[in-house]
Amino acid sequence: MSGLRLSDATLSDLPREILRPTYDRGRLTPGIVHIGLGNFHRAHQAWYLHRLMQEGDAHDWAILGAGVRPHDAALRDRLLAQDCLTTLIELAPAHRSAEVTGAMIDYLPIEEGNAPLIHAMADPRIRIVSLTVTEGGYYVDPTGGLDTAHPDIAHDAAHPGQPRTAFGAMVAALRLRRAAGHGPFTGLCCDNLRGNGAILRQAVVGLARLQEPDLARWIDTHGAFPNSMVDSIVPATGPAELALVRDIGIHDDAPVTHENFRQWVIEDRFCAGRPDWDRVGATFTDDVHAYEMMKIRILNAGHQVLANAGELLSVPTIADCMAHSAIAAMFRKVQFTEILPHVEAVPGMTPAGYLALIERRFANPSIRDTTRRVAFDGSSRHPGFLLPILRDALATGGPVSGLALVEALWARMCAGTREDGTVIETNDPHWDSLVSASRASRGTPGAWLAQRAIYGDLAEAPAFAAPFADWLSMIWREGTSAALTAYAAR
Fold first, then answer.
1. What is the CATH number of domain 289-489?
2. Helix or strand or coil: residue 5?
3. Sequence-distant (≥ 6) Cβ neighbours of residue 125 within 8 angstroms
4. What residue ranges in 221-261 does DSSP mark as E strands?
5. Of 100, 63, 72, whose CA–CA distance to 85 is shortest?
6. Is the pLDDT of residue 256 over 60?
7. What is the pLDDT of residues 298-316, one digit of tens each?
């Protein structure tokens, strides 16, 4: 393997043009535990902290990485082998640059029962526990409440000392902190969920209530769960990314590529202090909602508008979807006629201006963000990103034909084959049930909408169900391209 192996010992030997930590990593002390340490966290939240450390601040806020699933162990091994350093490669349309970041100082052992994680979070030096565990990882039931019947939640309620979930581990650590006379930490959700802090509070306090009501009240009263909005496009790491980091002269087994854009808006409600992330570009506010709605509805919903059509037509990346005339035309029309009317402006940005920004970002050919990655976990992303817009449009009598088309494309995609006959591999935690519903809906479109855990009562709304049935029938009969063309022509 070519390139200089990344480690603390080799930082000074890196190619001169590559930025690297200027602070003494040996003097950093932990202040944050981050659960779910994937590419996005390292390119986003950890980068903001790294930049603050570069300015000589926040050296007592270093990150301890953590996971709660066995598959996290492979990344842990790779990062520990390079002293938890990460090479970030920024891919702008016309240039690229690299930076090695060092805000993370350890990755906790991953064990059944999560004892190392609980012990770390019980340490009073830890003042923030942050999470990126995917939109579908918060055990939300179809009514929006905590899914207390889920086997993982039921297990943690019955075995508080041996939790399976991140939330069970957080409750166990908070119990230890209270017993030792320490205050709680702030729980900071960094996933793409509307009201993500409230959802995290529901998971932690709700689980604590099942175990020990007095503890739940203590957490609810003294803890903090600020809402936040995070934004940057960060592709998965594969052979191309590994080759790219080698090309710039570094042997990094876990590099991260990302676009040349970041945004982080955080509700300024912390119970145990916080880093001054605003000094390096984050926005603290008392109202995240408008920023959150703009991003989730235009960017995250927009990703789903593109990805399902792209998968069906074997278009490999989001940038390629934006270059595909029929997909791009559908995307733009759905956005202007059916999404933007349900988005409010934020300080300094109109919905149309934000869409123009998103179109430039999505079209960046240097970002090889696959349609498969973006289409992953549609059973969480469609209810989280698209269906709330659909409900608002139905409530106000607005058009929904394009949103119905998007749902029909997803339904067809879940049949498990592209239009060229290639197989779409499992791409959702509920893939088997989605495939079954998709194949049943080929002759009976209502079989797809009958998935009440996803659609609730939307099957009973003729203004949506009728165009959905028409589009799905057309897609099966004439193909995706015909449906896209028909929609654009209306």
1. 1.10.1040.10
2. strand
3. 29, 30, 31, 60
4. 228-231, 250-251, 256-258
5. 100
6. yes
7. 999 999 999 999 999 999 9
